[in-house]
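Form 7-S
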Amino acid sequence: WGAFIVAGLVPAATGIAVALERWIANRSVPDPSALEPALYAPGVAVLPSAQVIGSILLFGLLFVVARDLESPLIRYAVQGVAGPFVPLVAVSQLWFGALWPAEVLTAVLIGSLMLIPMIAIARRVDSICRGLPLVRAADVVHDERLPHARALTSTVVFNQNTVSKVYRPGFLPRAIYWLAFQAEFPYMRNQHALRAAVLRRNLIGRMTEFWYGENHVARAIGIDQVAGRYAITSEFVDGGEPEDRRAARTFLADLAEHFEAAGFPTWQIDPRQPRATDNVVQTNDGRFRVIDLESGLVSPLASVRAWKRAFSRGLVPMFDDIFFDVTRDYIARHEAEMRERMGDDWVRSLLATLDDTEQATSAWHNSEPRIWSRLLGRKRSSPDATGARRHWAIQWFEQAIRNWRAEGRISGAEASELSRKVQSPQFLAVMPHFGVHLGTGILLRFPLGSIARTGYTAFQLSRVTWHYLTGRIDRGTWRDAAGIHSPLVIALAAVPGFGAFAYLVSRPIRSDHLLLRVALDAVMLKVPGRLYQRFGLRWLVTDMPSTVLIQSKVAAEDLRSRQMFGWTDEHRQVSEPGQDPWTVEVAASWNVRGIA
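Output:
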């Protein structure tokens, strides 16, 4: 890990070191005519010192990290090549006359000084990532006398009658889960997630009893610890790999249909998943039993119906999620048949397990940030949430309008007109999304806030585009929505700080210039250090468009009227209190001309 990551820093470190070396020893080459044309073509900018510094960084790093190689033969071979390479490069620059001796020494010194912190970084990265593979599961300390197996993200330890599965996934599965839910992989230390997994497996096992007359899922016993790490312990199933993999896939396809009808996750048993049959064993009597229902990766594979359910319930991305309302509805529709075939006690136990599973799952989800899921929201609460966000955004605009009215920048009539526009349908369509961005800016900070806002707006644009392509909305509706969730809004949403106000550039808001200026002024007033006011930028947003341009228009109209009616200065009169001087002057001029 350390060598891999630090090797990627070599080009940048070389550039910094060369710039420093050029600054210290800025001299021409000793003898340009002596340079080998094949190596240094005339007219080409060459940096011979970069070769010295780059070789020190790359081969010096290779020499140091080679000490960790287990094989002495390979270790000595790598160090035998990397060690002499650096002085050979330095001598070659002197031999070809590309560098002065002082410049070679300077490059060697700077390269060596740069190599020291890079080695330190590599060692630090190795200490953090020690024992963490990229994809496969890391080693778990356990009694080596016990049979064990390695899965993608876990180590399975076999006891006499039980099997314990210890999760310690590699870097990639952990990174994917963190990007999806902003939390550590759940089956490592999250006891709520572990309890939910145990209950979920037993709940599904009970349902297979109803579907097939017997339990086709290895029963989960509980949560144990193996060498200080949490493990999911289940019953041992005596069997082996399916002899007929086609028959196993047929069983999984039928099981997946039942799972989907009941709202259960299908990732582990979906026959389209290449490792699905690895989660099934065939017993000596030929029956198939599922031995693993806990995922190692965030589910990328699901049916269209499952995706629709997940989006409508705010469960995107999906990871071992049960749609509990679907499950309860399924049980309610088949309850009479269940009681007849399985008995009242069985149904009572099933419902109790369902309640416990839903409670544990809720505790698991609440223990994680789950930004994307929370942005989508729950279907049942979405109308109220939409109203709250709309009200929040409208209040923000109303306050900005009141501030301009109090400062005398707009008249009472203009303020009333702006308030009316804020309540118009085209503006109300923007307000909930504007409220989402405001709330995200308050709850989350960079980079999570920027990621969440950009993802939210991009999802909204993708959603309406999909509806248009599938014929659910017409082109006009799509154009209106695309004007709200435009690519410009998506780009500005990623800007730290100001991204919370990205919807100001949506088409309905930016089409009204006065309202846009009012809102933009409210945003810019939040710039730290009063920079907006101190640098006179507020004048560009407030005074210049409203006062200067209006005065220019008044002067132009005055000139045009004088040319039309032959005004002179004697026609100007002092207006009465409360009257507009311009109106009085126009009326007086018309009286003089006999028009009125």
